[in-house]
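Late entry, evening session. Most of the bench is empty. Finally got around to the prediction I had been postponing all week. Sequence below, unchanged from the version circulated by S.P.
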Amino acid sequence: MMFDSKEWRRWFLALGAAIFLAGYLRYSVQGELTRLTEGFLIGGGAIFIVALALSYRELIGFFSKRSSKLSTNTLTLTALVLIILCFVNFLGYRHHKRFDLTAEKLYTLSDQTHRIVSGLNKNVDVIRFAKEDDPAFKDLITEYVNLGRHVHYQLVDPQAKPELAHQYNVTRMGQVVVSYGTRNETLQDTTEQDITNAIVKVTRDSVKSVCFIEGHGEKSIAGSDQEGFSDADRNLKNEGYQTKTINLVSAGSVPQDCSLLVDAGPKQSFFPQEAQIIAKYLDGGGKALLLLDPETEPKLEDVLLPWNINLGSNMVIDASGVGRLFGTGPAVPLVVDYGSSPITRSFDGTMTFFPLARTVSIADKSKTQPEDVELLKTSARSFTVPNLKTHEVKYDPKTDQAGPLSLGVTADRTSDPAEGGKSARLVVIGNSEFASNQWLGMQRNGDLFMNTVNWLAQDENLISIRPKSPADRHVMLTETQARELSWLSMIFLPGIVLLSGILIWWKRR
């Protein structure tokens, strides 16, 4: 078969366009300009331009015809549409935007993840060992990569690179490792919380210890019942803290490796020497969180008074009725008003619950040292009562306080520079149940506890709203409702469609 010069030029035009289009498609799919893709684009474009230059006389003759001019308008509009679509596709890839329509924003990275990833100053590698990628995991980790330039993701086939799998102690397909320098963390699950917690662990310079005081009937960090603190303990460990229990009487002092003290709901009083140990620890720049329930007498005045904190001998009642929406009663105060503190910076419009709480307030508001902040305020329709032992709980203006009432105080004090300028911090909350296993997951209770620990441990970069959990949206049907729904979907609706078809056929026949 013989080809004349016109046919050769047409073939070169088609070839150049095809090569250029192949290069563009490779670039769209891969998202990066490799040497091969660049060769396709340059080579295809060059062939097309050369063939177009050699065919300029034919093009002039072709476009001079009337039919060609009409066809040219159509081709021009088609070309413009294609160019616009390609441009929109390019912008969509480079500047993509996603919309999360779920009520809990489950597919949007949390405030905590934003703060941690944006604060990285060295590269963190996320490596998944598998033959093929998991679309859901890749979609999630892509959000991390887009959020910070220091997060890098890599898919590795452990059979193709066994030496790399051995380096990271990978034992099965699908394992994910977060690596930072010489530190590695293998994920047990691949949720946002697991990935973010792993990043926190590998990037921390040192492990801080949270010491829980025991010996006075406090809630146990090993307790998995409703009143236990095992969930709080797990959350602390997930964020890279080390936890342990201490007995101040047997220890004689606060161990030096304790980054902060936590006393969670003591039922018996402290010995005077124990109170002195805590006071001395705070004077030396220590940090402490005291969760003191009502109807107990911890005898910690020697600790609280120097910090200008008053612990009320009462119980707070919330008469607003809002708690009924969540299945709670008036003895569970609801807080939506928060003080100006890094702990509750992102709490606007959110709620925390405190079952059986007492007031904790600033003793003398005219004092400027230490820097005290009333952290948690109840509604105006709350009041105090001495206890719940009476048959009728009602407000007595002679003896009770009317709301808003303070349930917690934060205090910050820096010693004289001549004495070393040590920074000490203390947080006192008139309730410990809010951080128990039963209540920790309620609204922002968990964030309040963790943010308080972060602030006391001077880990302000971790203070945030943490990843959300999906709400339980199961629809519970009775046996009758399930049967009616089956009849509706399997008989009634198809029957209407069938009957409509028969009627239309009958009218048109």
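Two things to note before I forget:
The mean pLDDT is 82.
The first helix runs from residue 5 to 30.
Will write this up properly tomorrow.
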